[in-house]
Amino acid sequence: EADLLPAPENLSVSSIASAYGFGYSFNFTAVEYAESYLIYYSLSDDPSTASSLASGQFPPVGYSYSRADSYGDTNYYFWVRAYDGEDYGQWSTSISAVLQ
Known about the structure:
Layout: E1 12-18, E2 21-27, E3 36-42, E4 51-56, E5 61-65, E6 74-83, E7 95-99
Antiparallel strand pairs: 1-2, 2-5, 3-4, 3-6, 6-7
């Protein structure tokens, strides 16, 4: 059985505005052999409660939403995992951020 990819490090999130509404850009250190990444979020600091939010090939991974779907200044926790085409890697350390 192949070893899982290591966890991406230095996860951070910043809010961005675009012509399509609002969104977030997730930055982290790339993982060798990763084909893509998946961002997760939860209201609690527990990956077992996390739902997937966004996926993308290379950092940063962006997620956009319209103002109608705003998060209402709620504190969320985020994680990122790398994907090698077959398996998801280790969970990153969580970060928390208040989403508008």
